[in-house]
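Hey L., structure's done. Input below.
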Amino acid sequence: MSDVRGKPCILCCAITGSVPRKSDNPAVPITVSEQIESSHAAVEAGASIIHAHVRNEDETPSSDPEKFAALKEGLEKHCPGVIIQFSTGGRSGAGRERGGMLPLRPDMASLSVGSNNFPTRVYENSPDLVTWLASEMQTHAITPEIEAFDLSHILQALHMSASGKLYGKLYVQFVMGVKNAMPVDREVFDFYVHMMQSRAPLAAWCAAGIGAAQVTVNEWAIAAGGNTRAGLEDNIRLDKSTLAPSNAALIERAADLCAKYDRPVATAAQAREILGLRPYV
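Output:
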């Protein structure tokens, strides 16, 4: 691993998501104030990106731009400089509603460029919607984080980037472990890394594992020189019998793995530079 030693690793914290509830783990932050507090602790633990969804009072998913605006304001006040990444995921709304918060101009936003199966439904991302979301991100100078649930999504991201349809520097996240989508498979992971290195050597990449696979994929990504994501959106446990007490605890575990492989945890300023984002002012 000598080629990755000393290379800063960006840690993204997926704080809430659309699925886990307080009944699953009381630490899941639902209200905007809870999200801000949880994000602050995660940033203290090493997170430089906050991947954010918002919820209604009954904990159901929301795409309400007013909630996103309040969250963005709170994060800018209490976590100055952190990279704010809004989700445009399909569990939070339908059609263009999913991009209704993009005029708020977060630093980044997630972008799924293809459809796939989720545990109980099809995660639908039609070509027209993908094109519109990417265009909105161009308009508002938002760098997309491509969420790749399948190899075809990586190839589509490479094509869109080469065609000038994606704003900023290409950043692809491999999502592994969603039931009925791509499982946690080391051979597949290694091939994903090879594809990025051979076809987009100037791009950056990240990997996220769902459920118990979170720590496994964290270690794979860190050891391979990439970046990684942790947080209660993807995984509510430290181990089979122990609920994670906070988002910060999951980020701390990833930071410990960075130390294992002699990789410093990237500061928010370093992460902005690595990802080609506008400097924090």
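DSSP finds eight helices and 14 strands in the chain. The chain has one domain: 11-275.

-- N.
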